[in-house]
Amino acid sequence: MLEQYSVQPWDHLTDLDLPGVVLDLYAPPELEELANQVITLYDMSVSQMTLITSKPDKGGAIWKLDTNHGPRSIKVLHRDPHRSLFSVYAQDYIVRQGGRVPGLILTKDDNSYVHAGGKIWIVTEWIEPLEPVSKIDLEGAAVLSHGLGEFHKISKGYVPPAGIARSSRIYKWENYYEKVIAKIGWFRHIAEAYSETTSSSHLLSVLDLFENQALEMFELFKQSSYNKMVLKGEAYWGLAHQDYGWSNGQMGTGGIWVIDLDGVAYDLPIRDLRKIITSTMDDMGFWDIYWIRGVIEAYHQANPIDQETFELLWIDMAFPNEFYKHVKEIVYDPVTFMNTELEGILQRITLTESNKWEVLSELLQDKANYPAGDYAEVEVPSLIPDTSETFVFQRNPLVIPVPTMEMSPTELQLVEVEPIPLPIASGGGTPWFADVVLPANPISHPPSSKIIVPQFRSRRKKRRVKKKIRTYKPTPSKNTILKKKHSLSHPKKRRSSTHKKRKGLPKRPWLNKSVFPVRGTRTTRRERVA
Amino acid sequence: MNVLMICTEKLPVPNIRGGAIQTYICGISDILSRQHRLTIIGRSDPDLPNEEVVNGIRYIRIDSNNFLDIYIRGVIEYLESHQEQYDIIHIFNRPKMVLPVRKIAPNSRIILSMHNDMFTPKKLNNEEGHQIIETLDTIVTISNYVGATICQYYPEAETKIRTIYSGVDSSLFVPWEQSNKALQIRQNLRSQHQLDGKKVILSVGRLSRNKGPHVLIRALPHLKHSDVALVIVGASWYSDNSINDYIAYIRALANRSPVPVITTGYIQAHDVHQWFSVGDVFVCTSIWNEPLARVHYEAMATGLPFITTARGGNPEIIRNQNGLLVNNPEDPLEYATYLNDLFSNMASSKQMGLRGRKLVEQNFTWNDVANQVLSVWG
Q1: CB-CB: which of B144, B249, B375 is closest to A402?
Q2: Smallest Cα distance from A174 to chain B, Å
Q3: Could you tell me if B82 lies within 8 Å of chain A, comparing CB atoms?
Q4: Do A400 and B72 touch (CB under 8 A)?
Q5: Please, how many CA atoms are within 13 Å of residue B241, restricted to the half-sphere of its CB?
Q6: Which of residues 217 through 236 in chain B touch A, CB cutoff 8 A?
Q7: Are B138 and B163 in contact (CB under 8 A)?
Q8: What residues in A contact B153, CB-CB < 8 Å?
Q9: How far is CA B134 from the centre of its chain?
Q10: Which of A46, A315, A318, A527 is 20 to 30 A off residue A226, Cα-Cα?
Q11: What residues contact B68, with CB distance under 8 A and at least 6 apart?
Q12: CB B69 to CB A438 under 8 A?
């Protein structure tokens, strides 16, 4: 630990403290000073340091550095250090596997991070040129999706060093769905309690619909192969990015580069894919089956999916995630929310719903196009104790027959996930601890981890483009969603004139035309998949 | 005998930062140490030295950073380097500690106290579980429910399980009718929080969905009494930094409640008895399968009638008509019905509370608990 200063959020600062300053383009001077101190631990001289963006509510920030070794970035990770280290080692792993993520720069003492001010700091390569792919058409989305698939595939096999807590959501899908269903119930309670607000009755009128959807999809989920699939383990499935999109996946040399790995966690990778799909459908205001098929196919090219995975993706798309995401703010300030934003939200959601199920039911047929996965039949032990009147324990004067155990909810999870430290899985019943060497204190004595940076990386000039706010333009003709004319998905036809030709981007030989689904030839392509 | 107790990696002993297990150990350790030589290993704390002897009990504190694997490693290292022979090693709520300890202490009797469901297949693999059960001398549980759950996964454990209910300091938690000091505390706190003349419903515990306080708040509009207030001890929603969706939700409900809802914020373990003196009725709203919350003993010791849920081990505490059982803890109307009854008959409610007090004096003091532990140690 470098200094007594402890990194804290600064979103409490008001216009009075900092007139005219945009908080997420501001870092407190103490934080900058600490950053400078961290920099001295690296073998580089910095000619310029520019704050790129920050998270004032969490206490995170990233600066671009112009150094004698080329441009780099320095970032303070806002999460708990134990949580951050999982992500830092994940980034290192992905780099070593050849993934397109910024490489970690080592300190003079060969460490891949610094612990200062109660947070983890990393210095990484600054990748440039980087440009967001187009959001207004399928081609850009397909490229983005393909990049996601590459990221997921290359993250497989990651296991953090001993002593580092694992971040994992992979076993929590059931809890997640159950939690959302419970919260939809909360919306009802609040709408009833605040019935005088403008939109409370509108909300009440649609709640049953979304609640029923959630319940039905939850039933389908419970009947799915999820339990068997997750038995393959965390490392098998690899990492989900958790915040992937047009900002964090950008086009650079060789393909899509993935940045901002702070929140990576073990998860079924389709979570990331589902978020891109449903948020885009939400933005567009209607469901576009060609778009969805294109994006799934592009993903599949990079990280092949099987039938069971497709089914889970479908269920997750069908589940009213977007409804929940938009309405959940209601709990914080119900009066303002229901008098102002909620009406617009409900109208948009209702609009988007109008063809969602038509599209989903057609999409479901695609499941048969994917190969069946290989998941062993495993007996999942029953976790609910049955009647226990027979259990009478000796020598306790107050013993009474244990009442019948009813089917009661298994222990519910709290909202936010704390990393649960689990020992690395061992086989055969030998105690795990016998073979695992724990560092004395992973924070104060970081294990050295040499990173081999491939020679060619350092020669590239890289420039990151700042985040842009993109406005979405819907695909050319809403009326032709299900018609064949001018289909963006047909590779032989010229794209419509509204499609803008992008200049100056490098060719992407790695992206073959089979990314775009070709109607009528799907089966041949599927057969090629191993 | 030379006895070692190993507490968990989460909170220190003594219970300066609360914790049910830590409170349990604190309650019985003095009594136990009069009969045996006692060492207690716990996690380190900035306010506590890493080694000390207090009242004849030796305390060793090991760094854990809240992580079990780091803690186990530290405990084993300490035991290896000190080479002391213990007749009994009594481990608290951490089955995963058992095999490492057995490895370095092949001759000690190992006893495991279970305070919740750590044997679930979600947390412990089957083969390891069988080995652990095999190694143990006795498994002490805080309720029959916990024992039944373990036997569900590991039927061979049945002969080794022994239920020892927890206890409470019956001189600290007292009915205000029987103590001037408690009466004064009651009057002071009540007037400070505008609770004079109100029938106070008391709920103690974290604000989480598992704990279920939202259902109680939704019951409030159905109460037929106007002079009621709900006091929630243990958390608050005034600190925006720590608010989450659930807390925001119950705050939103409480803001529309016809009955005042007061949150006290986090209260230190040694101060919480004061709030028990404020209450007239105690409610435990747990939705999850709670092993058996210790707040029941605290409420009974204070002479409060209580309502609890038919979940986990909670029903085991209902005896001699000391409390009422809610069968569906997600139904606000059930709570409302019971509360209306209790408030309509304050005299008989009080009798219910005093029956609870008697039950505690006879069965649930720390003396009772310690004696049972001593009998297990042999």
Answers
A1: B144
A2: 13
A3: no
A4: no
A5: 9
A6: 218
A7: no
A8: 381
A9: 28
A10: A527
A11: A421, B9, B94, B96
A12: yes
| Tokens 């996930």 found at | A417
Q: Residue A434 pLDDT > 90, yes or no?
A: no
A225-234, A316-325, A441-450, B303-312: segment of lowest average pLDDT: A441-450
| Residue B249, min C-alpha distance to chain A (Å) | 5
How far is Cα A451 from Cα A258, in angstroms, rounded to an integer?
Answer: 18
> Would you tell me the crossing angle of helices A341-364 and A307-318 to the nearest 10 degrees?
150
**pLDDT above 70 (res A468):** no
Closest-CA residue of A relative to B240 is A332
Nearest to A96 by CA among A486, A406, A500, A452: A452
B 289-308 → A contacts, CB under 8 A: 289
pLDDT digits (tens, 9 = 90+) for B203-221: 998 888 989 999 999 999 9
Is residue B230 a contact partner of residue B261, using CB atoms and an 8 Å limit? yes
Asked if B337 has any chain A CB less than 8 Å from its own CB, the reply is no
> B67-82 in b/e burial notation, b at 16+ Cβ within 10 A?
bbbbbbbbbbeebeee
Distance CA A458, CA B148 (A): 62
Q: Do A82 and B65 touch (CB under 8 A)?
A: yes
Q: Taking each helix axis as running N to C, give the angle between helix A200-223 and helix A341-364, from 0 to 180 degrees, rounded to the nearest 10.
A: 30
Separation of alpha carbons A153 and A299, rounded Å = 10
CA B197 to chain centre: 30
Cis peptide leading into residue A509 (ω within 30°): no
pLDDT of residue B241: 52
Helix boundaries (H) for A97-230: 138-155, 173-193, 200-223, 226-230
Q: Tokens for B11, please give them.
A: 């909170």
Extract the tokens encoding A196: 């005088």
What is the three-state SS of B92-143?
A: ECCHHHHHHHHHHCCCCEEEEEECCCCCCCCCCCHHHHHHHHHHCCEEEECC
The whole-number pLDDT of residue A385 equals 32
For A393-415, give the DSSP string.
Answer: -TT-TT--PPPPPP--PPPPP-S
Q: H or E element: which one contains B201?
A: strand B199-204
**Is the pLDDT assigned to residue A189 strictly greater than 90?**
yes
Alpha helices in A40-112 (DSSP H): 81-96
Q: How many Å separate Cα B239 from the centre of its chain?
A: 25
**pLDDT over 60 (residue A386):** no
- pLDDT of residue A311 exceeding 50, the answer is yes
Could you give the CA distance from residue B73 to residue A82 in angstroms, rounded to a whole number? 17
ipTM: 0.84
Q: For residue A129, which amino acid is it?
A: P
CA-based nearest residue to A121, from A5, A255, A277, A203: A5
- Chain-chain contact of B72 with A388 (C-beta, under 8 angstroms): no
Nearest to A313 by CA among A362, A275, A359: A275
Region A271-300: mean pLDDT is: 95
